Amino acid sequence: MPPQKLGKHPNAKIYRFRRIVFALAALLTLAFISKTVLSFFGAEYVSLALSGNMHYTDLQIYDVLGKKLQNIVIDSEEQTAAYLKENLSYIKDAYITKNVMKRMLTIEVTERTPFALLRIDSTDQRNNAFFLVDNEGHVLKHIDKGAASPLISEQFRNMAVLSVSNDTLPKIGTAVKISEIAVGLNILKTALLLERSLARQIRNIDLSDQRKIKIRLNNFPGTVWLAGDAVESGLHHVALFLKQQNTYRLELSHVGTESEHLYLDARYEDTVYLGGLAARKKNR
After folding, report:
1. Are 88 and 61 in contact (CB under 8 A)?
2. What sign does the dihedral 11-15-17-21 (CA atoms) show?
3. Which residues are within 8 A (CB) of 231 and not within 5 positions of it... i.e. 6 or more apart?
4. Contacts 24+ apart (CB under 8 A), 92-97
5. What is the Cα–Cα distance from 232 to 226, expressed in whole angstroms?
6. Model-level pTM?
């Protein structure tokens, strides 16, 4: 007799179904256990060890992290650092280490230093705005127009104001994308590096015309003109002039047109021009 084919076991499908159910149950159980264990390391149970934070309190940083971090096991140090820099505009760098068993994050931050005020003049004057920036043009915060006035707020009394015309306002926590601002920051940084006494006198830099940048100083009654492509030489000549200015007596009077205002033209490499009003040598 030829061999007969063996049929499938009548309970094979039931066994297969039971195995699938068992596997799913095991996976769900493991998932529940994992979630329970990981929740032990949730943000609400994390301790923070902070250093370098001058502008933000420990509580402010903890609150920001609590909104983002689900637990310190699955969130990497890089994610934490990036989130801090994205949401806290003063933080320039953050170095994160974590101890899972102690449920602790150690955070070392480097904060940005306020450097200058940025004034944005829009074609619609209602949209004019002030911002606080660091020396890289990173926007730290929006400043109320009234508070930005040196006569009102002691906080900004000694800060130079960079003025530019633009209809696009920068976003807090990002670098300014206006090219003229880079020139203004370069003027301030170059002055601090090469002509520190002059740097302390700068009150306002009008960057609306790169061929004739207008600077207001504390100890000069007129306007200083610089060229955007000759900043270093221009600042040098202005500093020399200010050192010599006690040799001159400047007679100021009310004038009818802007072109008659006193100015110091330092846009040229080898010389400076004083014009606009009469200046005569002081008698000794």
Report:
1. yes
2. positive
3. 183, 186, 187, 190
4. 92/134, 92/138
5. 10
6. 0.74
Q: How many CA atoms lie within 13 A of 183 on its CB side?
A: 22
Reduced DSSP (H G I as helix, E B as strand, rest coil) percent helix, strand, coil of the chain, to 5? 35, 25, 40
Residue located via tokens 């100083």: 217
* Terminal C-alpha separation, the chain: 140
Q: What are the residues facing 162 on neighbouring strands?
A: 118, 205
Three-state secondary structure call for residue 275: strand
pLDDT tens digits along 116-166 = 999 998 877 777 788 999 999 999 999 876 555 544 466 677 889 999 998
| Residue 252, token pair as written in the block | 């100021």
Q: In order of start, what are the domains of the chain with their CATH numbers? A: 43-111 (3.10.20.310)
170-200 per-position pLDDT tens digit = 899 999 988 999 999 999 999 999 999 999 9
- Which residues are CB-contacts of 9 (< 8 A; sequence separation ≥ 6)? none
Rg (CA), the chain: 32
Closest to 56 (Cα-Cα) out of 89, 28, 78: 89
Question: What is the C-alpha separation between 135 and 121, in angstroms, rounded?
Answer: 21
